[in-house]
Design brief:
By secondary structure, this protein is an all-alpha fold. The protein folds into 2 domains: 7-55, Arc Repressor Mutant, subunit A (Orthogonal Bundle); 64-209, Tetracycline Repressor, domain 2 (Orthogonal Bundle), CATH 1.10.357.10. The protein has helices at 10-30, 36-43, 47-53, 57-80, 85-100, 104-111, 117-139, 149-166, 173-185, 202-209. The mean pLDDT is 87.
């Protein structure tokens, strides 16, 4: 017979599961500098076995991120259903930061731009939704008139660095700093000084992300 897929052997499925769990644990704790060899060792399988499942570390990052795309997009869609524009956008920021607070590798993957296809797919699918949430909030007078979405991206980078520095000693510290940042971006923030530097363009954001 042709066209009938062979069932996946139990040991093959088991090893892949061990590698995925190992990668999730190590990436969350140490970030994307973890090697595929370290992932295999932590999983208790041979390096050759790891390479049979994933040809490179990028391949396992792709597999991990694929499982998260739906979760991130679900947050965006949930926030779109919130009636109050400010609450919708600020809820989005808190929820996304919360999802990444305990996952150093995911923070690095989202904040940078290193050619990971699934991360690029998430940005392509998510950016129009984020832009819509932001525009809606700004048009409702929630943010200072000079505030642009690129300012939010930079603020997100700042919060990611806070999590990198405090995820062991004070894992909820990012909430405090995000509160202060949002207070400064709100339309009623006082006293107010006009920024001396113009906002980054989204093209500049992409260029910077490629160097992080």
């Amino acid at each position: 017979m042709t066209g009938v897929a062979k069932p996946i052997r139990k040991d093959v499925a088991r090893n892949r599961g061990l590698l995925m769990r190992s990668a999730e644990e190590l990436f969350a704790e140490r970030g994307t500098e973890v090697t595929l060899e370290e992932i295999a060792r932590h999983a208790g399988v041979g390096v050759a076995t790891a390479y049979r499942h994933f040809e490179s570390k990028s391949a396992i990052v792709e597999a991990m991120f694929e499982s998260r795309i739906g979760k991130f997009l679900a947050v965006l869609h949930e926030c779109e259903s919130i009636a109050d524009p400010r609450e919708a956008f600020e809820t989005y920021l808190y929820r996304i930061c919360e999802l990444q607070a305990t996952d150093r590798g995911m923070r690095q993957a989202i904040s940078a731009n290193h050619g990971i296809d699934k991360v690029a797919e998430f940005r392509d699918r998510g950016r129009p939704l984020v832009q819509r949430l932001f525009d809606r909030a700004k048009q409702a007078g929630a943010f200072r008139p000079e505030c642009e979405l690129s300012d939010i991206v930079v603020a997100f980078w700042m919060i990611s660095k806070v999590s990198d520095s405090t995820d062991r000693s004070s894992p909820e510290q990012w909430r405090r700093q995000l509160t202060f940042l949002l207070d400064g971006l709100r339309a009623e923030a006082m006293p107010r000084q006009t920024p001396a530097t113009p906002p980054l363009s989204m093209e500049q954001i992409e260029t910077i992300m490629a160097t992080i």
